[in-house]
From TrEMBL, chain A:
GO MF terms, alphabetically ordered: branched-chain amino acid transmembrane transporter activity
Any Gene Ontology biological process: amino acid transport
Protein name as it appears in the record: Amino acid/amide ABC transporter membrane protein 1 (HAAT family) /amino acid/amide ABC transporter membrane protein 2 (HAAT family)
Localization, UniProt: Cell membrane
Organism from which the protein derives: Palleronia aestuarii
Predominant cellular place of this UniProt entry's protein: membrane
Automatic annotation (TrEMBL), chain B:
CDD domains on file: PBP1_As_SBP-like (cd06330)
InterPro entries referenced in this protein's UniProt entry, alphabetically: BCAA_transport, Leu-bd, Leu_Ile_Val-bd, Peripla_BP_I
Pfam families xref list: Peripla_BP_6 (PF13458)
Protein name: Amino acid/amide ABC transporter substrate-binding protein (HAAT family)
Domain named Leucine-binding protein: residues: 40-370
Length: 625, 403
C-alpha cells in the first residue's frame, strides 16, 4: 500500500511540468487555432534560461525568482514570435501556421546550440529541498512535494484568470467564436498575442520548474512535444481542466507502466490516447469542434481543371528532361533525383487526402515506412524476389491504411490528426521493439534491388516510372468523379450526404489509396537505400511530408510535389553549412510569410495578376496548377 | 508550372556548384566523414576536433603518399537514409576515397551495408553494435572502438568477483540497451552460474521517468545493479537514485559512465563507487602512450579531451596508416591494407585491425568513480585489451556471413 501511494505521488510530481506545457499548448490552440509545434522549444528555452538565471541569482529568492523571471522571459519571446511569424498568416488555410512554427523550432534549435553550447546541463537543486522525506516508510523527494503543491496553484490561477477576469471572458469568447469576437470590436491581434505569450510563459515555467529533477539539453524540445500533444488531446483541445486531468492520468499510468510493464515505456501513452479517442472522440472534457473551416479561409478556391495545352507541354518537357538526365549528369544527381521523386510521391499521397479530402494526417509515415518494411520483411523472411516484394509493398501499406483508416475517419479535424499520430506511433513501436522480426532500431540492412536494377541509372528509370506514375495516378483520381465526391465531402459533408454520397466511405477509400501510394514510395525507398530503420516510421517523417505539402500549397494540385522538390533540394544544399538549421528555419518562415498560399499558390496568384484576371473569377486556362 | 521549371533550374544550378574532383598528384586525398553534427553535437564536436588534430600532425609531416590528407565533414542529422545519400555523394562527387563516421549504430549499419553493396571501404569509428563486425559483418567494413559485448564483458568480470548474486538491470529501450544487457547477463552467468536477475527496467531513450524507475528497481531488492543509461537519462537516474537511497550498500556496474561526455555534466553529483568503463585522460602519466595525445589535444583545442576526441584521432591515424600501407587510393588496395593493419605509437600503443573480423584492438579503461575537486573522476583504473573478452575465433567465423 505504501509503495502504491508513493507511486501515485511520483506520478503527480511528473504531471507538473507536463501540465504546464500542455495547458499552454491547449490555450494557444483554443484561441488562435494554431497547432504550435514550437511549444517544446519554449519549454527548452525555459530550461536553458532557468539554468542561466539560477547560476546568477543565489539562495531561495534567487531560485524561485529565477523561475518567475524565466516565465516572463519566455512569454516575451513567445509574444515576439507571434507578432513576427504568426500574425501575418492567420488568414492562411487552417493548420498552415504549423509550418511556420516548424521553422521556429529549427531557428531556436540552432540559437540554443550557439548560445548554450552542445553539452547537457544538470539543473541546479532547489535550495532547502534537497533530499527526501519518508512517508509511510517510502522515500519521497522534497522537491516532488513542492511540485505537487505548485501545479494546482497554477491551475487555480488560470481558472481565476479565465472565469473571473475580463481577459478571461474574451479568451473564452474567442475560443468559441473568434470571428464574432472580432466583429464585436475586440482587438483580436492583441488578444492572440497575449494568449500566445501566456501559453509560452507556461511552457517556460514548466521548463524551469523541472530543472531540479533533470536539466537542460538540446533534445528536450522534441521529447516533451509528444507527451504534451497527447495530454492536450486526451483532455480535449482547448480545455484546461481536461489538460490537468489528462496530465495526471498519463503520468500516473506511466509510473505504473514502468513498474509492472517495463517494456511499455515507448507506447503506453499513445495506446491510452488511441483508446480515449476511440471511446470519446473529443477527449475527456473537449467539445465537438466548431464546424471545420477547411477550404473556407482565405480566397475562394478556383475550380480545378486538367492542365491546358501549355502546361501539358511544360510537364512533358520536364519529364523528357528527367529521362535524358543520366546522359548528361553524374551519378550523384541521379541519386538526388531518386530521393526527390520518392519524397514527392510520398508528399503527393499525403496531399491527396489533405488537399482534396480535408483529412489532415499526422501519421502518414506509418504507410511510407509500412511499405518499406513490408518489402524488406518479405525479402528477409520469405526470401521473396525483389520484384514481388516491391509490388506487394503498396498493397500491404494499403491494407494497413484501410485498418487504421477504419478507426480514424470517424473523427475529424485535429482529433483525426492525433488519432492517426497515435496509430503511427503504434506501428513505429512494433518495428522498434519486435527485434527478432524487424531488427529493432538496428533495422534491416542489405535489402538491395534485383541484379537488373542494381545499376544507379537503371534504378533511376525504375523510380521515374513508378514515382511519376504514382503521382499521375493520384492526379487522375482527383479529376475523376471519385475526386469530386471526395472534395464535396470536404467542403460540405451534409450537402454531400444529401446528394447520396457516402462521405465516410469515400474518405476511407481515399485514405487507403493514399496509404498505398505512400507504401509505393516506401517500396522505392527501401531498395534505393538498401536498408530500412524505424526512423522511416517516426513522427518526424510524417511531419516532413506535412511541411512540404503546406509549403508547396494545400489548395493546389502540384503543391506536394513542388514542396518536396524544394525542401529536399534546399536541405541537401544548406546542410553543408554549420548552422544550416537556422538558415532553413528562417527560409521556411520567410516563404510562409511571403507566400501564405504555398509556393504554387503564390506563383499562381502572380501569374493570374500578370494575365490580368482576378483569381477565382474568370481564370484563363493553363494556369490552374 | 513556371515554378516546376524554376525549381528544377535552381536545383540544377546548385548541383553544378562543385565540379567532380579529379585526383591528381599533389591534390589532397579526400576522406568522406558523415556524422550527427546537429543531432548529437556534444559527441560529434570533440570527435571532429580529434580528427583535425591528427590531420594537423599528419599533414605537417608531409601527408600521406606525399599528398595532404583531407576530411570532408557532412551532417546527416542522425538519419540513416540521409547518411546513405551523403555517402553516395561523397564517393561519386567529392572524390572521397573511403568513408568513415557515425556515432549511432543504426546509421553505422546502414553505411556498412551501403559500402559493401557499392564496394567502398567504411571505417565505423564510434558505433558500438556488435553486429557491425559479426552477424552483419562484411569485408568492406572495419570498426575501431571496443564493442558493447567487450565493454559489458569487462564489467561482468568485475561483478563476478563480488558476492552479489541478485542483479537488476536498467537500460534504454533500444538495440544498444538490449544488446548490452544480454551481453552482461551472458558473461556474468558464464563466470558465476548462481547469479539471479531479479529485475529489468527499460526506460525510453532520453525520456526516462527516473523516479519511477528507481522505485521499481528498489522494489526488486537487488544486491547489485547493471546500468546502461547515459546522457540526460543517466543524470536523472543518478539524482533520483541518490536521493532515494537506491545505491546505498549496492554495487553498480555502469557502461560508458566514466567517459567525459557523460561524467562531466554530472559535476559533483557523480556517483562514487560505481564500477564504470570510460576514459581517465586526467590521470594518464608521463610514459603512458596516451599522455602525449592529451597534451597535444589540450594545446591544439584549448579544451580537455573526450573519448570522442581519442576515437576521432585514432580514426584519422588508422586511415592514414592504411592508405600509406596500400600505396594507392584504390578501394581494393585500401581494403586489403586495412586487413591486419598495424599502426605503431598511437595513444593506445600499437593499434591493429584483426583479419578475422576487421575489429581493431582498441580496448577500454575500466575503473571506479570518485569525486575530486567537485568533479567525477575514475580511480584505480586500468586499460584493458579487448582480446580476452572476445568470443573464440570459431564462434566469430560462424557468426560472420560467408565472404
Amino acid at each position: 500500500m505504501a509503495f502504491f501511494l508513493a507511486q501515485i505521488l511520483n506520478g503527480l510530481a511528473n504531471a507538473s511540468a507536463l501540465f504546464l506545457v500542455a495547458s499552454g499548448l491547449s490555450l494557444i490552440f483554443g484561441v488562435t487555432r494554431v497547432v504550435n509545434f514550437a511549444h517544446g522549444s519554449f519549454y527548452m528555452l525555459g530550461a536553458f534560461i532557468g539554468v542561466t538565471l539560477m547560476e546568477m541569482l543565489p539562495g531561495h529568492v534567487g531560485f524561485w525568482g529565477a523561475i518567475l523571471l524565466t516565465g516572463l522571459a519566455v512569454g516575451l519571446i513567445g509574444a515576439i514570435v507571434e507578432m513576427i511569424v504568426l500574425r501575418p498568416i492567420y488568414r492562411a488555410p487552417e493548420l498552415f501556421q504549423l509550418v511556420a512554427t516548424f521553422g521556429v523550432i529549427l531557428v531556436i534549435q540552432d540559437l540554443a546550440l550557439m548560445i548554450w553550447g552542445a553539452a547537457d546541463r544538470m539543473g541546479p537543486r532547489a535550495p532547502g529541498l534537497r533530499g527526501v522525506v519518508r512517508l509511510w516508510g517510502e522515500p519521497i523527494p522534497k522537491y516532488d512535494l513542492a511540485l505537487i503543491a505548485i501545479t494546482p496553484l497554477v491551475l487555480l490561477g488560470l481558472w481565476y484568470l479565465i472565469t473571473r477576469t475580463r481577459v478571461g471572458i474574451l479568451i473564452r469568447a474567442a475560443t468559441q467564436d473568434r470571428e464574432m469576437v472580432g466583429a464585436l470590436g475586440v482587438n483580436q491581434a492583441w488578444l492572440f498575442t497575449g494568449v500566445f505569450a501566456l501559453g509560452s510563459a507556461l511552457a517556460g515555467l514548466g521548463g524551469a520548474l523541472q530543472l531540479p529533477k533533470g536539466g537542460a539539453d538540446l533534445l528536450m524540445d522534441f521529447n516533451i512535444l509528444g507527451p504534451a500533444f497527447v495530454v492536450v488531446v486526451i483532455g480535449g483541445m482547448g480545455s484546461l481542466p481536461g489538460a490537468f486531468l489528462a496530465a495526471i492520468l498519463i503520468s500516473v499510468l506511466g509510473v505504473f507502466g514502468v513498474t509492472y510493464l517495463p517494456q511499455s515505456t515507448l507506447v503506453l501513452m499513445f495506446v491510452v490516447m488511441a483508446i480515449v479517442l476511440i471511446v470519446r472522440p473529443y477527449g475527456l472534457l473537449g467539445r465537438e469542434e466548431v464546424a471545420g473551416e477547411h477550404g473556407q479561409v482565405g480566397r475562394p478556391e478556383p475550380p480545378i481543371r486538367p492542365y491546358g495545352q501549355t502546361a501539358r507541354l511544360v510537364v512533358m518537357a520536364l519529364v523528357g528532361a528527367l529521362l535524358l538526365l543520366p546522359l548528361v549528369a553524374e551519378t550523384f544527381v541521379q541519386i538526388l533525383v531518386i530521393d526527390i521523386v520518392i519524397f514527392a510521391l510520398f508528399a503527393a499521397s499525403l496531399h491527396f487526402i489533405l488537399g482534396s479530402g480535408g483529412l489532415v494526417s499526422f501519421g502518414h509515415a506509418a504507410f511510407f515506412g509500412g511499405g518499406a518494411y513490408a518489402a524488406a520483411l518479405l525479402v528477409r523472411h520469405a526470401s521473396a524476389p525483389m520484384e514481388v516484394a516491391f509490388l506487394l509493398a503498396p498493397l500491404l501499406a494499403g491494407v494497413l491504411a484501410l485498418g487504421i483508416g477504419w478507426f480514424c475517419i470517424r473523427l475529424s479535424g485535429v482529433y483525426f490528426a492525433m488519432l492517426t499520430l497515435a496509430f503511427s506511433q503504434l506501428v513505429w513501436s512494433v518495428a522498434f521493439q519486435w527485434r527478432s522480426v524487424t531488427g529493432g532500431d538496428d533495422g534491416m540492412i542489405s535489402i538491395w534491388p534485383a541484379a537488373w536494377l542494381s545499376d544507379t541509372t537503371s534504378y533511376y528509370y525504375f523510380t521515374l516510372l513508378f514515382g511519376i506514375g504514382g503521382i499521375l495516378l493520384l492526379r487522375h483520381a482527383i479529376h475523376a468523379p471519385f475526386g469530386y465526391a471526395l472534395r464535396a465531402g470536404r467542403d460540405s459533408p451534409r450537402q454531400a450526404e444529401a446528394m447520396g454520397i457516402d462521405v465516410k466511405r469515400i474518405q476511407l477509400a481515399a485514405f487507403t489509396l493514399a496509404g498505398a501510394m505512400a507504401g509505393l514510395a516506401g517500396g522505392l525507398f527501401v531498395f534505393a537505400k538498401g536498408s530500412v530503420f524505424p526512423t522511416e516510421l517516426e513522427i518526424a517523417r510524417s511531419f516532413d511530408a506535412l511541411i512540404v505539402v503546406f509549403l508547396g500549397g494545400v489548395k493546389t494540385l502540384a503543391g506536394g510535389v513542388v514542396g518536396a522538390t524544394f525542401l529536399t533540394g534546399v536541405e541537401d544544399w544548406l546542410s553543408r553549412l554549420q548552422y544550416w538549421r537556422l538558415l532553413l528555419g528562417l527560409l521556411i518562415i520567410g516563404v510562409v510569410i511571403v507566400a501564405p498560399e504555398g509556393i504554387v499558390g503564390a506563383v499562381r496568384g502572380a501569374w493570374m495578376r500578370w494575365r490580368g484576371s482576378a483569381p477565382g473569377l474568370k481564370s484563363k486556362g493553363g494556369a490552374a496548377t | 508550372m513556371n515554378l516546376h521549371r524554376r525549381a528544377i533550374l535552381a536545383f540544377a544550378a546548385f548541383t553544378a556548384i562543385a565540379p567532380a574532383a579529379v585526383a591528381q598528384e599533389g591534390d589532397p586525398i579526400v576522406i568522406g566523414e558523415i556524422n550527427h553534427y546537429t543531432r548529437m553535437a556534444a559527441f560529434a564536436e570533440p570527435y571532429r576536433k580529434g580528427i583535425e588534430l591528427a590531420l594537423d600532425e599528419i599533414n605537417s609531416d608531409g601527408g600521406v603518399l606525399g599528398r595532404p590528407l583531407e576530411f570532408v565533414f557532412r551532417d546527416d542529422q542522425g538519419d540513416p537514409a540521409e547518411a546513405v545519400r551523403i555517402a553516395g555523394e561523397l564517393m561519386t562527387r567529392e572524390g572521397a576515397v573511403m568513408l568513415t563516421g557515425s556515432i549511432l549504430s543504426n546509421v553505422g549499419l546502414a553505411l556498412s551495408s551501403f559500402a559493401a553493396e557499392r564496394g567502398y571501404v567504411y571505417l565505423a569509428a564510434e558505433p558500438l553494435a556488435d553486429s557491425l563486425v559479426w552477424t552483419s559483418g562484411n569485408p568492406y567494413t572495419f570498426r575501431l572502438r571496443a564493442s558493447t559485448w567487450v565493454q559489458a564483458a569487462m564489467l561482468a568480470e568485475r561483478a563476478a568477483e563480488t558476492d552479489a548474486t541478485r542483479f537488476a538491470t536498467i537500460a534504454p529501450n533500444y538495440a544498444y540497451g538490449t544488446d548490452a544487457v544480454e551481453a552482461f547477463k551472458e558473461n556474468l552467468t558464464r563466470l558465476k552460474p548462481d547469479v539471479e536477475f531479479v529485475g529489468e527496467q527499460w526506460p525510453a531513450l532520453f525520456n526516462i521517468d527516473a523516479g519511477s524507475e528507481v522505485q521499481a528497481l528498489e522494489r526488486a531488492k537487488p544486491d547489485a545493479i547493471f546500468n546502461v543509461t547515459f546522457g540526460t537519462d543517466l543524470a536523472r537516474f543518478v539524482r533520483e537514485g541518490g536521493d532515494r537511497g537506491l545505491f546505498d550498500g549496492r554495487d553498480v556496474y555502469s557502461l560508458l559512465s566514466g567517459e567525459p561526455e557523460y561524467l562531466e555534466p554530472l559535476g559533483d553529483e557523480a556517483p562514487e563507487g560505481w564500477t564504470v568503463t570510460g576514459y581517465p585522460w586526467y590521470a594518464l602519466e608521463d610514459g603512458d602512450p596516451g599522455k602525449p595525445f592529451v597534451d597535444a589535444y589540450e594545446e591544439f583545442t584549448g579544451e580537455t579531451p573526450m573519448i570522442g576526441s581519442l576515437v576521432g584521432y585514432l580514426t584519422a591515424v588508422s586511415i592514414a596508416g592504411a592508405i600509406e600501407k596500400a600505396g594507392s587510393t584504390e578501394t581494393e588496395a585500401i581494403r586489403e591494407a586495412f586487413e591486419g593493419l598495424t599502426v605503431a605509437d598511437t595513444p593506445i600503443g600499437e593499434l591493429n585491425y584483426r583479419e578475422i573480423d576487421n575489429q581493431s584492438n582498441m580496448g577500454a579503461y575500466i575503473g571506479t568513480l570518485a569525486v575530486e575537486d567537485g568533479q567525477g573522476v575514475m580511480v584505480d583504473w586500468e586499460y584493458k585489451e579487448p582480446g580476452p573478452y572476445m568470443p573464440s575465433d570459431e564462434e566469430i567465423t560462424a557468426m560472420r556471413p560467408a565472404e
